[in-house]
Structures
1.
Amino acid sequence: MKFQSIVVLILFALFIACNQETPKQEPITSDSRPDRHSFSQPKLAVAKHLDLNLKVDFDQKKLYGTATWTIENLGKAKEIIFDTDGLNIVKVTVGQEAKEVQFLLDAQDSVLGAALHVPIEPTTNLVAIEYQTGPNAAALGWMDASMTAGKTKPFLFTQGQAILTRSWIPCQDSPGNRITYHANVSDVPDGMMAVMSATNPQEPAKNTYTFKMDQPIPPYLIALAIGDIAFKPISERTGVYAEPVMLDKVAWEFADMEKMVETAESLYGPYAWGRYDVIVLPPGFPFGGMENPRLTFATPTVIAGDRSLVSLVAHELAHSWSGNLVTNATWSDFWLNEGFTVYFERRIMEALYGADFAEMQDELEYNELIEEMKSLDSADTRLKVDMTGRNPDDGATMVPYQKGSMFLRMLEQKTDREKWDAFLKSWFEANKFTSRTTEDFLDFLKKNYLDKYQVTANVEEWVYKPGIPANCPIPHSTRLAALEKAAQDIANGLPNTKNWAPQEWVHFIRSLPESTNVATFKNLDSKFHLTQSTNAQVQLAWYEVNIRHGYVTEILPQVENYLVTVGRRYLVKAVYQALKDIGHIEDARRIFAKAKPGYHAVTRGTIEEMLK
């Protein structure tokens, strides 16, 4: 090669290098981010609206997407940063002209995923990211037909909370970043319907579905489900989605949905999201419920045939105010979502089903809190927990839920319900469609409640100190006290169980003395047919307590059927653990081998680790 040619090539290479849009990477430090669980720096450049185009591939268990973000460059930044986790980024373009730019994807962090750096100009207002989901996308639940109720078609659902949305959409994945979105989902197989946390169809379309969510939500609330789905209305603004074989049962179970919405509105103001629908997912769904706006995702284990477990719906509905309307700004402020929601749930249940029922539920969960706190680090018993460097799911204990609710109940009792309800209503109204920190709430509380009504309260102790303060309003249910006495007196005869709610059965079973013998369990079973119960909560309590007391062989076939047909992790984990603890690990392994094709990866992984 001639010398002149070499010089030309070198000069050309230098020209290209100088003109490439390689982002200048500034070091990302936790101090420069408002949320320690997101790489994004929204105070400099923020994503505001998402236009999402997805193609679904059930054979490959993969989503092919283009996420087009409308952005604001607030600080004349040279780059905008998105969160990703396991995504294959194909290309990135910027601006209306869709100019392709060179992006930078950082090394993968085991908890947070990888930061995606995109170069921008001060006037850039669009960023389009073409990508594919990875094989281990944590948010995606791909369920084979065997994992569904109908057993004929596969199913897909997403679960974004807390920081999993980044595994199926490149986004600024922080609860402090609120966005609107429109979506187009194509290649949906024939005979299947797609629904999202947005406007939804009520009849199947032909392979392609469009969605709009024009109210700003945090990214963890973007949700998608695709499967053999049908719809049935409950009222003009409420309804249920489920597999066709489950639809009538679900509609009957949730007949009080409109009453719940009306009750919630009477407490804390108008429902802001248009429709309130619930989709009951297939048995492989490993969670209880998820409050995706306009469309709560729910476990099929609440379909008990007696409307006894509808408090889950009340809880997820309450999130339409606490969590969705006003959201915790970071995962260290998680109690602002869950403590408020548990308090709100109790108020809904009290209005619909009576104060004694709500108090019973409150005491049951308070007892769970006290038991769980025995195994928690002291620092994790505070309401505001430092989650720096930790998976935010580690903070999802009973503390933000129940201690948070008790804190609000204590404040309520400082004046009266009329004043307290007016205060809470003003909190939701003043802060709707925003994300707030603990300190934001405490400032609002001081100005609009404590100072206004001259209330003195140990707020700092409740929020920032470990443990349960001495002025905690401990719930006491006379119904539960009677159950405990009946359980302790079981040797003297069977109790009168007429009109017992399933929650009472659960507490009675768990209160049976350690000395209870197999003959007593057989007698209880013969009288009340508990082994054949169709209520998953009663089944869990009965099977676990029986196994630990040695009443195993006789009920093992029913236990096996339960473990094979229930996929919710919480409901199966304790039963497998009981079998293992009493030396029946081979039975546990045999049953698990049969059950695991119907389990979601979350449940599968937990049980596999347990039975090693």
2.
Amino acid sequence: MISKLTLLSTLICGLVAVVPTYAQYQYPTAKKADQVDMFHGVRVEDPYRWLEDTASAETQAWIAAENQVTDAYLDTIPERAALKTRLTELWNYERYSAPMKIGPRYLYAKNDGLQNQSVLYIADSINDPGRVFFDPNQLSADGTAALSGSAFTEDGKLWAYGIARSGSDRTDWKVMDVATGQHLPDTLRPNRQGSVSWLLDNSGFFYSRFPDVQEGGEYKGVNRFEKIYFHKLGTPQSEDVLIYERPEDGELFVRGGVTEDGRWLVISVAKGTERMNRVYLKDLSNADSPVVPVVDERANRYSFVGNDGPVLYFHTDHKAERGRLVSIDVTDPTKTWKEIVPETAETLNDVQLINDQFVLNYLKDAYTSIRIVDKSGKPVRDVELPGIGTAGGFGGKQKDTETFYSFSSYNAPTTIYRYDLKTGTSTLFRQAKVKFNPDDFEVKQVFAKSKDGTRVPLFLTYKKGLKLDGSNPTILYGYGGFNISLTPSFSASRVAWLERGGVFAVANLRGGGEYGKTWWEKGAKLNKQNVFDDFIAAAEWLIQNKYTSPAKLAIQGGSNGGLLVGAVLNQRPDLFGAALPAVGVMDMVRFPKFTVGAAWKSDYGSPDDPAEFKALYAYSPLHNIKPGTRYPATLVTTADTDDRVFPAHSFKYAAALQAAQAGPAPVLIRIETKAGHGAGKPTSKLIEEQADIYGFLVKELGLRWMQ
């Protein structure tokens, strides 16, 4: 008798090309209103403005009708159930976070496999499997409540934590006694909270928050004028003391953290999502001390690393676009900066101060290398990593002699190592055991040439023995913004694509942080078109080198990556067989009007500026859809409680693309309920969404299961 597993393996062992067939898609009627705005003398039509009222009965009816069309389409895919079964099998593996020291104990997160949220465990030693400390799965039956923010006191006795519900960025905070598990009466009401930072004596903590938005507008209202408060334990939030604000500019973000020795409150002030900030300092040894400047101009990035008394260490791109490590003695009247580690050819991604040494995390062509230096900057050693991939962690206190780090790559599940800072020895701590053989797959880095000659890195992952005949179904993924680097990482769901002969490609585009400040700036504001050119060049490279062909190529991206997919789809609809824009920023003239959208002007520019508006309008995914165009098959994904990228971006974009489509390929939108921008999404919803996405690609790229 053939087992279910054997039968399933037979069904999914490979894919072959077939010619897809299309039906006429009857999309819900989306009325077109006579809405026109004027921007610098340009008439901008916005006929689907009514979809911005996401709570209205009319919009809710449209959402329900769109989901009905999408569900009916997905129900026609016979492979969808088998896909979900395989994805569930792949997802069902134990996974861990790198442990962190909490007082005398160790804290780590663990997911048994299919738990909707990972569970926190606390252990008395590294050899102790530990006990459950906090289980977010107990907060809601459907797993849509998630841990969102965590801060322990220096001695590990108290814990402040935030909970976000339905994927929202809004959190409410509580305080727990670590030893007893009992909650203190202290709470912070739901808000887009900044991180909590405790005083050394455990008497209270600093935190950031925005003014409350009008009731009913929690998921849409603009968030401006963030402030830092101090909460004293045992007092109501209404008595919290305002510590710092910048009333002259509502788009400034203000965040504060207490130094490890408890002496200073280090305040960072940034505008929007800029990687440039001012730095201020408050002496906590004197309650009446003023807030004084350390860096009083917003021209470069300064990330606080640690301190030795009045000597503060910063990771900065000042006079070093790829980063360097510097220090300043705040008691020195001359305020002279001292260079400890100069800029190198690689990008300095992160710095940690542990064992009175600096652990330097570099990016070399978008993958990790780790170096350790002493406090004078003298090299101690390099950390030998298992291969080309991403290493993270290396957290701890200044006097710790051990730390933990994680390593993963596109074909390597996350592995946790304990690192002895005295000897330089890495010891395996936890290793994920995913039901696949990583040796069956190859990871390769190549370089495409963009329109202006720029060298664009491209990671490729595929099954060994791949034939370069242009017939391989391929997903090309990109982001290209906000100085965020895409580094090699593992995804269990991606295995389901790879083992069936699919290629997964990741393009490191300008606008990211892979090569420092200039790389980011060359993909921001008036230079944003470079990002799209880079992505198109990556697609053309894949086609020219016979990895795939236009009919077999899908493009994917989320958030700013959703914008990328939407913009490129308008510019080169002939180049792709399918498109997957997720939670995208699609209306580039109204993005500042919702939630934290105004913060993105640092990357996109402002519609209020004539030159920047011209650039925004030229690529805005919503405004450059051309009626009568044969667009490839498109599956838009978003969620009803996304309060980072307002879901109406996707609503209006989908309605406009459906109206413009002249070809036979479907234009669908999948609108998740009780979910947000992506963080904290329960495992069950992740599996269902991924099964739908792969099912869509199986059908629209012209594939069928081999039988």
3.
Amino acid sequence: MKRSRHLSWKTTLKYLVFLPVMVLLNLALPMREPLAFSLYFALLACGLDPFVLSAEYLLASAAALSLAATLCCLLQAAFLCLAFAVFARMRRKVGWEKILFAVLAQLPFVFLYPHAGYAFPLPVIWQKVILAAFLALLAFLFEGAVRALLFRAFRCRLVATEISEIALLWFFAGMGFYDLAGLIPFYAVTLFLLLGAAVLLKNAAAVPLALVLSFPLCAARMSVVPAAEYALLACVGVLFSPYGSIVSALSVLLSFLGVQYFEGLFAESALTIALTVCACLLPAAAICFLPERAVKKLRRTLLFYRERALPRIAINRNRRAVGEQLYEVSSLFREIETAFTAEGNRAQGVHFKEKLIACLCASCPGRRKCRETGLYESFDKLIAVGKAKGKVNLIDLPQELSASCRNAAGLLFALNKLLDDYRRMEQELEAARAGRKLLAEQAHGVSEILKDIALEQSEEFAFSEEERILSNALSAAGMMSSEIFLYGEGTLFTASMTLLESTDPKKLCRVASRALGVPLALSEKIPLTSDRACFILRRRPDFDAAFGIAACPKTGETASGDTHSVLKIDERRFLVALSDGMGSGEGARSVSDRTLSLLESCYKAKMPSDTVLSTVNRLIALSGEETFSCLDVASVDLDTGNADIVKIGAPMGFLLSGEELRVLEGESLPIGMLEAVHPATMRVNMKAEDFLIFMSDGVTAAFGSSAELCSYLSGLKPLNPQSLAEEILKKALGRYKGTAEDDMTVLAVKLTRAA
């Protein structure tokens, strides 16, 4: 609890209201027992200023008109003020200690308070013990009422327990008010509240409120007749409320006068009749002349909060339907993948021998002799050599063919032509096979994405006890939410709530995190009205990251062939990549840009990593250009610090962790060089204050050897990634004597603890 030195007018007014309520409570019981103690203790437990409250409690004790009673209250106030002030100074919230404080604070009442005792067969001291226990119990009940009135009333819907506690507080305060002011002022106040409830609520909720208002009068008269009268008046007010506040007020006024007629009011003195009529007429007039704008605002405030069960049901139905549809579409893409990967019933090879015989030997007079002697079997040997070499010549002819065949030159020519056709057909088939494989991989990736979304969308939103816990915590912190919506688990946990637009986001995150036991951060703030907004909190990652980049093109070139990417995949993962296009200048930069653009698009779509790399490699390889690119990729999880690193033809990278330097290297060829990519993959666990460093080959080559580079990096004590990247680039340029012999880029990432 932190007290402000300067009280606002609202706080001042609030404290001014507490004093007369304490006085009324001290007048509630027949022997003026200090019932104000219960309210005093409840206000202290709610975190209000103990010094101001103690002064008010002592002033209220004057109602007992006894020096001994005031001394008793002084001891109670001194003890409780000191106890709660110490806890406030220590910035600790009072917990179970409240029970001990309440018990100890009642000792002065038991031993010092002047009490004659009631006509019960018990000693006075035991009666005082029972009264002390009653006051302590009442203090904890009043605490719930005070919390509801200060932090939740007119902001959100009160639960039945809170309403009961407020009714109990009114019962005792109303008894004191009736004892102090009498019947006519009691009528004026309660009828005003009854009329206001009928006009604002316009429903049956006004009837139980009317019953609560009548309880002090029932207790004073020892009769239930007042409760029946107030219930009747509430029913009349609600019945005529659709016709406007004036009609409703007049109907209640006439009903009240009718009830008073049967109670014998008009047999009293003229002054009593006039005052009683005024006690009803003045509240009715006040209700009638309330500005319509104020009435609408009050009604909207009272009825703002509702348990929104139907919207949740509708949302769940829509999510379930969308999830089922997405799952069906995912299955469709899975079938497409199967169709593309299935091999067709292709002919097993090409029948070269039959074609050669049909083309060359059909008109040859020695074809019968060749068949009888088995010379055609030698064709198989020649064809096998042709398939292996791609073409045949004279030295490839089997001895029996060169000796017996009359058209050896024609045979070689025809076979080479068939081999050319065969090779061209195989290339076309291989290209088609690669295309089918690429499409199959894409269908697989889309299927996995849709399946994940389908599973996420199928999760239903349900009411949870945590919503109630969060609502209570926000109320205790002075932040009223008309609606709270919690969903998701683990890293997907999300809390949405409607609050005043001026709500402090840092305080909100702190209170919500403490209440739910989950570290939360503000993800989004959506304006709803001029003064209210929807605050969306999501689980805060354990880590944050900072980035640094330093680059220099090759001397004489206007553009660098190195490109880099820093991409936020989602709120819990980010991607860094460094692409080094072969060569330098605009051509190399175009290849590098294309590679990173493909990577970013695939990762944004949350496609599986193996599918991403394979797809990008095939698209680059099938582009028809002799274009290659070396690639460093790191996908970092901000919840765990795990970094999945992929190196494709790239020079070594480094993980700088305190005094330790770890080398990250692979042996794969650059992307786009072969149709099948075989990247070097690894997972490293990064901790807070670790640096991940990627470099293009222009930087690593400047150091001459990996030993020199590692020795240089081991001696660095970097503070931030930008200065680290600039320092490495400066050192590399210095080794080139200021002239960049190749494109040079350094990309550095630092992991830090989330604030």
